[in-house]
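<context>
A single protein, sequence plus fold
<entry> Chain with its tokenised backbone below
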Amino acid sequence: MKIDFSSVISTFIGCENDIPSDYESISNRIFEAINECKTCLDHGEFVDINLGVIGSIVYPFYKYKNLTSLDLLSPEDIFLFSRYVINYPTINRFIDIGANIGLHSLVAKKIGYSVISFEPDLDTLGDAKEFFEANNVEFHELKEDEISFEKFKYKPDDFLLVQAAVSDFNGFTKFTKILDNPTANHLSGRKSNIYGETIEHNVQVICIDRVDFEAVIKMDAEGEDARILRSVLNSGIRSGFLYLCDWRGETRQDIFKLLSKNQRHVYNPFLKKTVENINDLPMNKSSDFIQVEI
């Protein structure tokens, strides 16, 4: 089965800062195409997705209890892809924090970025590797005993897949895996209102504060957002953009305080305005993201 989002990507790239005026109708068309695929595909099958100037990808269809892997391809995500296109090649390095099956990492790689992709869950990491291999994308996997900041001083065209979580410290901590919803896995204690059967195990954690190059960062960290944001703002990253795609009501105040204290320019393309007060930052991530200049 095939989905053609080439015209969507073209429209989004043509928007300098904000979503287009007809974003709602575009979103409806995206959902219609995705929902049609959901009714036709079986678990483990692939769909060909045309992303216009980015190229085509072969995307896996996984069924979870209450959602599918296609739910990771929302209008928000596709609009974010267009931001990656706009930022390249002025910035040519990409960091994916909370990669899941690696959709954003793969898109960034196809655009031309060098990529560091962080995912702590072994099962999800296995799905990501199958996804990359299906798209003939070469990557180097860094396992726990191989991880060091020297490894992150990679050459252009590298694609590093790192078996680790990211936070504001280096070490190991407990990780909660939700068996029927891998999109909600998280470092233990970081989320309330957990639904479904869980298991817990240790994962390695990397503090990103020693990364010292310009980068585009996509962050979707399931409750770890404020801690990682603090680390990024204190890091050696020379400049770039951070796209904050996930936060919780309980971390909203901390995020706003961090952004205000560090006097960073923060923009919400969905509200079409600079984030000047806490009301410009939604109560929780629902269907948008914010752009932080770093």
Remarks:
- The first strand starts at residue 2 and ends at 4.
